[in-house]
Fold:
Amino acid sequence: MSTEKTDTINTTRKNSKSTSKSKRNVFGECANMFVKLYHKACSVLFPANIKCLICGDDLPQKQDIEICEKCRCKLHDIAESECCMRCGAPISGQGSFCLNCQNYNVEFDVARSVFVYDGEIKHLIAGLKYNNKPYLSRTLSHFMAQKYRELNWQADLIIPVPLSDARKKWRGYNQAQLLAEGVSEILNIPINTETLVKIKDTETQASLGLAERRTNLESCFKVLDKYAVRGKKILLIDDVMTTGSTANACTHELKRAHAGRVMVLSIAHGKQDIPTQSSLESIKNLIN
Ligand SMILES: [Zn+2]
Ligand SMILES: [Zn+2]
Structure:
């Protein structure tokens, strides 16, 4: 066969290949366009009906965090530069640690919260805790998982702050456990909801002084299986952090069972009430 003839055959083959390729491309584009049109038609005919958990506006699509952009902007994130480096309380002014962490024995290694406990986040947490809306924990868990990733923490085990049996029965669920289960699923970290238990209700503290409260809170929690936590880096999950005394009491028990590092993550942290020097002195006197 002459070289000229071979070239002609090759060119013809090339052309037919590129033609079939371009046919495939055209077919692929058409198929993509058809799928997009189909989804658009479906979303118009059968809307997903996903609404913002705060304002109730329709969301354009299903998303992990079911909050619209407008409402997201209203939530007050706690930046690393504006919180206590130990307990994560929002603080203003100079210094890396809040007065609580400077003056009292903090047992957990580090704690952080996603938001300041105010405005819309307060309403969402109230819905989860008091208005029987356990589904709110899905979105809140995603916020917590995002925060965990940002902080670059490395936990072996997730444990929720437990509720007493009586409180759990009253509410029907433990909101911290729902959050912890969500975080565990998103981050693929094992969870243990059986080991750390609350054996006394905190309400019984009402009549006690500050020093007695601290001791009493410590004896509220118990680790049932110390081998489950021994040497483990624990991510302790709670909904709201206020004084940090609950997280402290849980950590006390976990460390007594020889847990390793204890990191506390919560959705929101109450604004720190900065105690005056005189109130600090009176608190110190109470403890000593
Ligand atoms: Zn909204
Ligand atoms: Zn602090």
The longest helix spans residues 3-45. Confidence is low (pLDDT under 50) at residues 274-288. Residues 52, 54-55, 57, 67-68, 70-71 surround zinc ion (ligand 1) (CB under 6 Å).
